[in-house]
Amino acid sequence: MRHLLDVTDFSVEELYELIRTAEDIAQNKEKYCQSCKGKKLATLFFEPSTRTRLSFEAAMLELGGSVLGFSEASSSSATKGESIRDTVKVVSNYVDIIAMRHPIEGAAFAAVKAADVPVINAGDGGHCHPTQTLADLLTIHRECGSLTGLTIGLCGDLKYGRTVHSLINAMSRYAGNKFVLISPSELALPSYMKDFMKAERLEYVETTDMDRYMSQLDVLYMTRVQKERFDDEKEYMRVKDCYILDNKKLAGAKKSLRILHPLPRVNEIACEVDSDPRAAYFRQTLNGKLMRMALILKLLREKDMPYNARKSEVHKDLNCPNPKCVTKTERELEKEFIFSDGEYRCAYCDCYVKNR
Amino acid sequence: MRHLLDVTDFSVEELYELIRTAEDIAQNKEKYCQSCKGKKLATLFFEPSTRTRLSFEAAMLELGGSVLGFSEASSSSATKGESIRDTVKVVSNYVDIIAMRHPIEGAAFAAVKAADVPVINAGDGGHCHPTQTLADLLTIHRECGSLTGLTIGLCGDLKYGRTVHSLINAMSRYAGNKFVLISPSELALPSYMKDFMKAERLEYVETTDMDRYMSQLDVLYMTRVQKERFDDEKEYMRVKDCYILDNKKLAGAKKSLRILHPLPRVNEIACEVDSDPRAAYFRQTLNGKLMRMALILKLLREKDMPYNARKSEVHKDLNCPNPKCVTKTERELEKEFIFSDGEYRCAYCDCYVKNR
Amino acid sequence: MRHLLDVTDFSVEELYELIRTAEDIAQNKEKYCQSCKGKKLATLFFEPSTRTRLSFEAAMLELGGSVLGFSEASSSSATKGESIRDTVKVVSNYVDIIAMRHPIEGAAFAAVKAADVPVINAGDGGHCHPTQTLADLLTIHRECGSLTGLTIGLCGDLKYGRTVHSLINAMSRYAGNKFVLISPSELALPSYMKDFMKAERLEYVETTDMDRYMSQLDVLYMTRVQKERFDDEKEYMRVKDCYILDNKKLAGAKKSLRILHPLPRVNEIACEVDSDPRAAYFRQTLNGKLMRMALILKLLREKDMPYNARKSEVHKDLNCPNPKCVTKTERELEKEFIFSDGEYRCAYCDCYVKNR
Question: Contact C293/C25 with Cβ under 8 angstroms?
Fold first, then answer.
């Protein structure tokens, strides 16, 4: 059965296929309004994420299907100590497809192992949030006309920003893209991401200066600089205003620049920017809905195909070193690992096993 | 785009039109059961209000549409610091019409400024709750056969009772209505409301005695006397039982009297009254659903008409004096004011600006 | 109007009729997918119970109907002090049928007294949870081919387990069933249940040894042994592992044994058992949905028939001795009692009145 745990589950060709479907939906809404008639989506949100949940629900409703679920763990059996797998196993008897959000890393793969219906990872802790990346890809494609040959600025919290890492991964699969990494030094891109970029021979520069490369950017992906990320509050106070996008900072940017943001924003983009045609972040949420529609259609259509994305095997003698991994909390979960490039990584949270 | 922030947004003729539609729906349910097919309503409830939310959801479902949303702020992005406008802007990409409940006064107008779809104010703090008043109007019209020439008793908390003020405002637009204001002195109608009634030349009497005018009433609008409203608990204990409606108090009332209550009630109407044909408060909730159906139909039909109800202008040098106003909490909100009768009032919360 | 408060509301023939309908739905899904078109179910869950709620919602959606409601009390008017009856009376104006879950014993009968639409008891405190028992009955019927002549093991917490008592009651109505009561002595079946079994001339044995009768069982109904039920933690530690079902314990069981569990489970059934064909507990949740579909159909079809299940009368001089009874918390509720076999019991919570 096909599922979506991470964007890399899909080939480049499959991603283009999703984009084509989404663009067709945008043009021909009526054509799809009965596509999921009689089908049900469960939104199992073990932590609140209104935007993502409502986007999935709108997507399913626009396909003519219906929705049930919960919006936070306190409304779920998890509070009675039920495992993720039991919840998913039971809900498989109620619906045709599941979108699951969970605070624990690797929870999505645990769900996949129990599910009798396709599972979409709607975010599993700091691990993956692939439908956000699908929204980003469609937005870049619709706004810039292409996914190749772009100069992409990534600004704000590049250290913890899950969506930033995922977008770099995704855009690395298209030719000719360059990356400008803009952040305070405390929140710079982690070295393992830079190692990945070097291995993939991606062109990138790092800077703490938001203005420096502004004129070269085709895409500016904004994220929030959160106070809690700083050890030293003074340091936070010093840098916080440097990464706020306003009309002044945009003065030297290209007319064709497109500004993206995974939302919610707090103050990292001034409201005055909203009326600028380069502001694409609200259209991005529309694109998120369209890609979720395309995704639901694809997974329901291909549900009898095998899930090959994670070629894992059980290794009882290995342990995932990630303390936040689902293998630490979910009862009686088989320890599975993926072997690639001479290393083992946890099949749930993708954490590498060191010191074998 | 048309919205509903307050009942006064609609002309008297438009209110009659809503009433006619609601009465037609009551008679011809089948005729409307596909009217909103393919349409979606978002119920954005930043504070719980089950009755109102379920009424909106039932209304949309009976029109053949579907519903998504949230029932309290903890399930929304508001907890991540997102502005009302961003939430509404995003949700505009998911649905065709929004019903929003928010604890902050003036929140509805902030929402209107961002929305790309019609917004219905389902209550914004102590400011407005127009769909309750629509339910009240339909109930009076159906039960009394008219909106004119009625003697209307208002009983309980007339000081803080938002629905009471709104009903007085609404009924002042119909000829020949008289008002009997029944409350403990601590909870008497505020002077600005009495000033309004004098300016409109409305006939009214004030009394602390619930029995005194009972025999003259056509409508008795009951509200709850809440302990928290009293500075002095002894005073509360002294008066609390005086404003409880029971069969004994109803003995001298007209046969044609109709008893309304915005609900939920606690003990201000004894349960023995429920079986009296004069008790209209449960039918009132049915009427609330019917008026919400009529309202959704009207706003979707007229969504390309401009929203002219609040002729406001930006005044950077003016400040709304209301500490509970949305302008105090919502980021980067333009300060707008309405000028009428020589005075400025806040375009969000309707608070008058004094001491210019 | 017909309702479902307890399984005993239905005759044996009616239960077979529900089973036949459920089995027909399982075979002919399409035949029923428009049966409730235009109908609405309210899920009024005053306490969270995700599994039960989602099962009801899936059931209604698969019948072509729609759903509204709330999933916990904090989202309801109950927090404003509204009575159960007022909530139900109002919601009757919004929907065609109500499924209510409430933490207070007897709440379902209080709801029935106010409702203008059929009410399904989706659990009222420790009192009844009939739709779980309906799921159990269908599971036994589908898995064992019959409801008669079975040896039924009940294992775990037989003292507080509401579902266990309800299942014994239900299975006592079919001929030739024997019961094996397996529990630590602290959690043995209460004496009033044993008195009932004796009065009904049911064959049963009691044991603390899970292995002893394993080879004779046709059905093994597992429940959880909860730490909180023990006065003495040491005693809990001593027995807790004795009532965990694993492959080893199953070694001597019949091939035709079927394992049931009301779920959620914590660790009382090892995950290794899940892949055993005798494990019926996940299929049981599917059966729960099917029986809820059959039940909704029956109650909507028979809604004009009288509710005769509880022949109660008002007795102002009697008091229900149960401190958890809804008569202790719900305002102005008439005290009603059922007289049978020379004794009075509370019409709400079924507690017997002693020491008249």
Answer: yes
At the top level of CATH, the class of C7-130+286-301 is alpha beta
Mean of pLDDT over chain B: 94
Beta carbons within 10 angstroms of residue C20's beta carbon:
12
Q: Encode pLDDT of B187-219 as tens digits.
A: 999 999 999 999 999 999 999 999 999 999 999
**Which are the contacts of B24, defined by CB distance < 8 A and separation ≥ 6?**
B31
Instruction: Verify whether the Cβ–Cβ distance C265 to A69 is below 8 Å.
Output: no
pTM of the model: 0.96
B89-112: buried (b, 16+ CB within 10 Å) or exposed (e) per residue? bbbbbbbbbbbbbbebbbbbbbbb
Catalytic option among C40, C85, C101, C113: C101
With 0-12 / 13-18 / 19 or more C-beta atoms within 10 angstroms meaning exposed / middle / buried, residue A26 is middle
Judge if B7-128+286-301 and B131-284 fold alike in CATH terms. yes
Mean pLDDT check: name the lowest of A90-99, A263-272, A278-287. A263-272
The predicted-structure confidence for A128-140, as pLDDT tens digits, reads as follows 999 999 999 999 9
C314 touches chain B (CB under 8 A): no
Beta-carbon pairs below 8 A across chains A and C: 68
For chain A, domain boundaries = 7-129+287-301, 131-285, 316-346
Q: Which CATH architecture has domain A131-285?
A: 3-Layer(aba) Sandwich (3.40)
* CATH code for residues B131-284: 3.40.50.1370
Q: What is the pLDDT of residue A81?
A: 81
**What is the rounded average pLDDT of the residues C145-156?**
98
Q: How far is C260 from chain A (nearest CA, A)?
A: 14
Domain topology for B7-128+286-301:
Rossmann fold (3.40.50)
Contact list in A for residue B97 (CB cut-off 8 A) is none
When mean pLDDT is compared across B21-30, B225-234, B257-266, the lowest value belongs to B225-234
The reported pLDDT for the residue numbered A61 is 98
Report whether the peptide linkage leading into residue A264 is cis, meaning its omega lies within 30 degrees of zero. Answer: yes
Q: Is the pLDDT of residue C76 over 70?
A: no
Sign, Cα dihedral of B272, B277, B280, B283: positive
Q: Is the complex ipTM more than 0.85?
A: yes
| Fold of the CATH domain A7-129+287-301 | Rossmann fold (3.40.50)
The pair phi, psi for residue A181, each rounded to 5°, is -100, 110
Q: pLDDT value at position C355?
A: 55
pLDDT value at B100 more than 50: yes
Whether B160 contacts B126, CB under 8 Å: yes
- Please judge whether B263 and C82 are an interchain contact, meaning their C-beta atoms are less than 8 angstroms apart: yes
Residue A271: closest C-alpha in chain B: B332
Does the beta carbon of B50 lie under 8 angstroms from any beta carbon of chain A? no
- Tell me, what's the pLDDT at A356? 47
CATH number at C131-283: 3.40.50.1370
A225 token code pair: 């600089």
Task: Provide the percentage of residues in chain A whose pLDDT is more than 70.
Answer: 98
Exposed/middle/buried for B3, CB within 10 Å: 0-12, 13-18, 19+?
Answer: buried
For residue B29, the chain C residue with the least C-alpha distance is C38
- Residue A127 tokens read as 């691990």
B52 among known catalytic residues: yes
- Do C119 and C100 meet the contact criterion of CB atoms below 8 Å apart? yes
To test the contact with chain C by mutation, choose from B46, B54, B224 the residue with the greatest count of C C-beta atoms within 10 A, namely B54
Between the alpha carbon of residue A142 and those of residues A22, A52, A146, A269, the distances in Å are 10, 20, 7, 22
Q: Decide: A134 and A333 in contact? Cβ < 8 Å.
A: no
3-state helix, strand, coil in chain B (%, to 5): 40, 20, 40
Residue B84 Rama label (left phi>0; alpha psi -120 to 50; beta)? alpha
pLDDT tens figures, C255-300? 999 999 999 998 899 999 999 999 999 999 999 999 999 999 999 9
